[in-house]
Automatic annotation (TrEMBL):
<dbReference type="InterPro" id="IPR002884">
    <property type="entry name" value="P_dom"/>
</dbReference>
<dbReference type="GO" id="GO:0005802">
    <property type="term" value="C:trans-Golgi network"/>
</dbReference>
<dbReference type="Pfam" id="PF01483">
    <property type="entry name" value="P_proprotein"/>
</dbReference>
<protein>
    <recommendedName>
        <fullName>P/Homo B domain-containing protein</fullName>
    </recommendedName>
</protein>
<dbReference type="InterPro" id="IPR008979">
    <property type="entry name" value="Galactose-bd-like_sf"/>
</dbReference>
<dbReference type="GO" id="GO:0016485">
    <property type="term" value="P:protein processing"/>
</dbReference>
<keyword id="KW-0378">Hydrolase</keyword>
<dbReference type="GO" id="GO:0004252">
    <property type="term" value="F:serine-type endopeptidase activity"/>
</dbReference>
<feature type="domain" description="P/Homo B">
    <location>
        <begin position="5"/>
        <end position="143"/>
    </location>
</feature>
<dbReference type="GO" id="GO:0000139">
    <property type="term" value="C:Golgi membrane"/>
</dbReference>
<keyword id="KW-0645">Protease</keyword>
<keyword id="KW-0720">Serine protease</keyword>
Amino acid sequence: KSWVSVPEQISCSTSEFTVAQSTNFFMPEVWSRRRIKSGEECEIDSLEHVEVKVSFSYSSRRGNLILLLESPAGTKSYLMTHRPWDSIKYSDPGSGIWYFSSVHFWGEKMDGTWKLTAKTDDEYSTKVTLNYWKIYFHGFKRAGNSSPGLKTPEIILTILGAFVTFIITVHW
């Protein structure tokens, strides 16, 4: 067996996208969409992971806040889900600037429209305000039209094959 390295990692980020919108009884979610295009300063055509800096505030029960990032390919990654104990421990109003990371977008392109949704699972007691967000992309640019290493489907099949082998070995 031989190992083929991927090209050197490239990292770049967007500017901050101001939203300043809040949920309410009639609108339990707010969202922001931004079109991203790779260019001369950042040419990533295969993502490895994405980081998101999010500024938000909440009227009560921080654990009711849900954040969801959607890629141009339609892949969704929950950055923050409902957390019952967090709702109890942090029941007072508050705000934060938090960084989240996701590998759900592995192998995708960064070009296209990205969507961040902030919502509450209890519109009666928790109002969420999405202040601003920023995306940090990490990945690589393939040399020419072909990858020097495994292509995404081959990677997935390799990982799935190893996982199935592991399951069969453990099960028996």
